[in-house]
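Friendly challenge for the regulars: who can give me the structure tokens for this chain first? No prize, just bragging rights.
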Amino acid sequence: MPFGSLWLPVVVSAVAVFVVSSIVHMVLKYHRADYKRLPDEDFVAAALRKDKPAPGVYFIPHCLDMSQLKDPAIQKKFEDGPVAILTVRPNGRPAMGKNLVQWFLLCFLVSFVTGYIARHTIAAGTDGLTVLRITGTVAFGFYGFGYLQDSIWKAVPWSNSLRGVLDAVLYGLTTGLVFRLLWPAA
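First reply, four minutes later:
Bragging rights claimed.
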């Protein structure tokens, strides 16, 4: 089957996931629980402002490698806390336009790779349920599994990851349904 016959489901599923994600974040709003406020945010912000860290990801207490964990001074820092991963973004209002464009490009990439995998595993004219199962599962994996890695390695609360996995279920179903509806006939 030529890949050109899959451009329509690729583009439509990317747009559909983008719309579903907008509904999830603007109407359902269950992601409001993802971030907590620090007890004395102004104090922490002032301390960070004083040192002006560049945008990036910081680990507190910082270790260059695992061998430093044998150092009693480093061990004490870990015991006394806080142990944190801090993401510093550029100053200014969030660049929602840029973020939304990047999110749409990710949706398109997921749909494109899902279509590529489907092209090589599903024949034209295959029943709709099979198309939905395979494309929905592939898209779910792309959208969802990174959240689990964040909880394992970055200490993101599991409740945050589970909300992300719920999103991935919705996005996978959306992708699968679009591919099912637009799958080329035999």
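DSSP finds six helices and two strands in the chain. The first strand starts at residue 56 and ends at 60. Your move, everyone else.
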